[in-house]
Structure formats: structure tokens, C-alpha cells
UniProtKB/TrEMBL annotation:
Catalytic activity: Exonucleolytic cleavage in either 5'- to 3'- or 3'- to 5'-direction to yield nucleoside 5'-phosphates
Record keywords: Coiled coil, Cytoplasm, Exonuclease, Hydrolase, Nuclease
UniProt cross-references to Pfam families, sorted A to Z: Exonuc_VII_L, tRNA_anti_2
Main location: cytoplasm
Key word Phosphoprotein present: no
Role played: Bidirectionally degrades single-stranded DNA into large acid-insoluble oligonucleotides, which are then degraded further into small acid-soluble oligonucleotides.
Cellular component terms (Gene Ontology): cytoplasm; exodeoxyribonuclease VII complex
Domain Exonuclease VII large subunit C-terminal, chain residue ranges per copy: 129-346
Protein name per Swiss-Prot or TrEMBL: Exodeoxyribonuclease 7 large subunit
Enzyme class: hydrolase
Keyword hit for Transmembrane: no
Length: 402
């Protein structure tokens, strides 16, 4: 490289020209690279682009994931996350700095789907969508059952076969939707919301499909489906995949079934089991009634053997005789008391008569009263010409004092 000062034959380059040359060299030399590092200073503005620093113990580089590439990531980029990413080097001329433009990324040491599932599960758990106290029991005899699934899949055929075998009185309404691929999660969520608007209302709602890989079942792990199932006003059964496959939809539903066939067994009552229960109840009722009848018959026989029921008139006769005795006793007591009080009354009357003034008058005495009605005990109380009254045992008379 020449170190001669610039002149007519060697003009100086502008900053833009130098940057353009460097940009060309960088981008041509590193059109495709795989880089591993730790995410730090992560930011995602309203534009949807992701900006962060990718670093290790000795160096760091600015990185960007444009909105379209970020939407294809199955997990969320967060500070401290170790990732392996693919992209190209780009020089940003306005700042004279280079950056790594990432179009693919996956977590270091863990699958992207597994990490995405873990992140979303933690988020929805914090919102309370998987709480046990939100779970509702299924009705014992649902009349109308909805099934959100693919109308052409094996899941609905298995469900209907089991339902037909168990109970013929339940109506099954299929709400068709895709259950795999891009956009399936939004369709499933919309189908769950539609099922809640069906009239007459459904008694139970089943959401499910047959088994598959984690990629096939991924739509049942996406937030729209989980939120729709958790918000359903109808008791919901999740029947996704096989026993080893647990989706977030399973955790949000009121009941989890391992397969669509088991969902039918959980939702649809068994006619044979119902008939057996009815027969068992009939036998129990009949036995209880028989024992109660025998017990009451024994009690009735015991009562009938007792004297009041065996000879009911004898008790009446006993009481009648006792009543007669009490009546005679009472009459004698009344006569005795009457005679006693009559004698007492006669004695008192005799004593009273002996003290009565009238008794004295009957022996020839009289009572003299002056004009003012005062009894005269002394002749000095009287004046000549004064009128006095005389009371005898029989009658009265008046006189003038002389």
C-alpha cells in the first residue's frame, strides 16, 4: 500500500468511498457464517426487529434479526441465552460499524421447540391458566358434545365409534379445523370460540387430534389455543396425541384424555354401566324396603302383644272402676266436710246469738235513743218534753219525756 501523500495522481478517498470498499470486502468474505455466543442487551422495538449483542469471553459483535426472520423463530430471544445462529456480516455505513444479520438461530444445548415450550409454559403458568382451582367437573349425562378437530382425521372416527358403542342418546357436533401446520393454532382457537356460541349450548367440548411428532402437535402448544381453551365457558376435554405427548392445551383444559377414544369414554356415559348402576340401585332399594318392612312388622307384632292392644277394653274398664272409686271417695269427703262446717257454723251462730242485742231485747228489755239517735244510758241525759224512741224485741215506739 502506498504511503505517498495524496496528489493529482493519488487523490484521497472520501469516508463513504472507503466504507463502501470495506463493506464490499466484508460482505463478500463472510456471506454465510455460523456463530455461537451469548445474547445480551436484547431489544425489540415496535418495528418487530430484534437487536442485541452476541458475545463470548473475549469479544462481542452487534447482531440483528429482521422482523420476518424473528417471526420464524420458535423461541424467544432473551438476555443470557446461549445460541447458535446463522447469518451474514453487514457493514452499517452511517455508523461505520459492522453487524451480524441473523436469519436462523437455535438454543445452545436444547432444541428450539423445547425452549419455546418451556418459555411459554412459564409465562402462561404465571397468568394462572393452569391452576387446579379453575378445573370444572364434566356433566354425567351430556346431551350435546362438540369436537374441535379435523373432520377427515382418525380422531373423529375413533371418537364416534366409541360414543356410538357407549350411549346413543348423545349428539356429537364436529367443529372442523386444521390441526397441523402454519395457521392451525388460530383456526383451532376460532373453532373453540365458535363452539361457545353454538345454540342450543353444548354440554362438553373436546379439542384434539391423533398422535404425532412434536412438530405435528405444536399448534396445541401455541398461546391462542391455550388461551381459548382456558377461556371456554363449556367444560373442555383435551385429547391431543398419545399418553407420552403432553401439550399446553392439555394443561389448560378441565380434563385431559390420552387419546380421542379415551375422551369419548370420559365424556359419553356407558349404557351398560348405567344399566348396571340402575340394577344395583334397584336391588339396594328393594333390600332396604324389605328390611324396613320386616322391622316394622316385628315392631307391630310386639305392640300387638301388649295388654293395651291385646285387650283394649280392659284398660278402659280398669280406669272406669278407678274413676268410680274416686267419685265415691270424693262424695264422702264432701259430705264429711259439709257436716263438719255445718256444726262449726251452728256453734258460731249460737255464740253470736247470745251476744246479740236482739237476744237481750227478747227477754223484755228495750233500747232508748234520744232525738239525735244516741243511746240513753242515764236519765240525766233527757230533758222534759224531749222526744225519745224505744226499740223492743219486736217493733219500735216513740215517747215524750215528762
Amino acid at each position: 500500500m502506498s504511503s505517498m501523500p495524496p496528489g493529482p495522481d493519488h487523490p484521497a478517498m472520501s469516508v463513504a468511498e472507503l466504507t463502501a470498499q470495506i463493506k464490499g470486502l466484508v460482505e463478500e468474505s463472510f456471506p454465510s457464517v455460523w456463530v455461537t455466543g451469548e445474547v445480551s442487551n436484547f431489544a425489540r422495538p415496535a418495528s418487530g426487529h430484534c437487536y442485541f449483542t452476541l458475545k463470548d469471553q473475549h469479544a462481542q459483535i452487534r447482531a440483528v434479526v429482521w422482523k420476518g426472520s424473528a417471526a420464524r423463530l420458535k423461541f424467544d430471544l432473551t438476555d443470557g441465552l446461549e445460541i447458535v445462529c446463522h447469518g451474514r456480516l453487514d457493514l452499517y455505513a452511517p455508523r461505520g460499524s459492522y453487524q451480524l444479520v441473523i436469519d436462523q438461530a437455535q438454543p445452545q444445548g436444547v432444541g428450539s421447540l423445547e425452549l419455546a415450550l418451556r418459555q411459554l409454559k412459564e409465562k402462561l403458568t404465571a397468568e394462572g391458566l393452569f391452576d387446579a382451582d379453575r378445573k370444572r367437573p364434566l356433566p354425567s349425562f351430556p346431551r350435546r358434545v362438540g369436537f374441535v378437530t379435523s373432520p377427515t382425521g382418525a380422531a373423529i372416527r375413533d371418537f364416534l365409534e366409541v360414543a356410538r358403542r357407549r350411549w346413543s342418546g348423545t349428539q356429537v357436533l364436529v367443529i372442523p379445523t386444521r390441526v397441523q401446520g402454519d395457521g392451525a393454532a388460530e383456526e383451532i382457537a376460532a373453532a373453540v370460540q365458535l363452539a361457545n356460541r353454538v345454540r342450543p349450548a353444548l354440554d362438553v367440548l373436546v379439542v384434539g387430534r391423533g398422535g404425532g411428532s412434536i412438530e405435528d402437535l405444536w399448534c396445541f402448544n401455541e398461546a391462542p389455543v391455550v388461551r381459548a381453551v382456558a377461556a371456554s365457558e363449556i367444560p373442555t376435554v383435551s385429547a391431543v396425541g398419545h399418553e407420552i405427548d403432553v401439550t399446553l392445551c392439555d394443561l389448560a383444559a378441565d380434563v385431559r384424555a390420552f387419546t380421542p377414544s379415551e375422551a369419548a369414554e370420559r365424556v359419553i356415559p356407558s349404557g351398560d354401566e348405567f344399566a348396571g348402576r340402575v340394577q344395583t340401585l334397584h336391588n339396594r332399594l328393594h333390600g332396604t324396603a324389605r328390611r324396613a318392612t320386616q322391622l316394622r312388622r316385628q315392631r307391630l307384632e310386639a305392640l300387638a302383644s301388649r295388654r293395651p292392644l291385646a285387650r283394649p277394653y280392659s284398660l278402659i274398664q280398669d280406669h272406669s272402676g278407678r274413676l268410680d272409686e274416686l267419685q265415691l271417695t270424693a262424695e264422702r269427703a264432701v259430705r264429711r266436710l259439709t257436716d263438719q262446717h255445718r256444726r262449726l257454723l251452728d256453734a258460731a251462730a249460737g255464740r253470736l246469738h247470745s251476744l246479740s242485742p236482739l237476744a237481750v231485747l227478747s227477754r223484755g228489755y228495750s233500747i232508748t235513743q234520744d232525738s239525735k239517735g244516741r243511746i240513753v244510758r242515764d236519765a240525766a241525759q233527757l230533758r222534759p218534753g224531749e222526744r225519745v224512741s224505744l226499740r223492743f224485741a219486736e217493733g219500735e215506739a216513740s215517747a215524750t219525756v215528762d
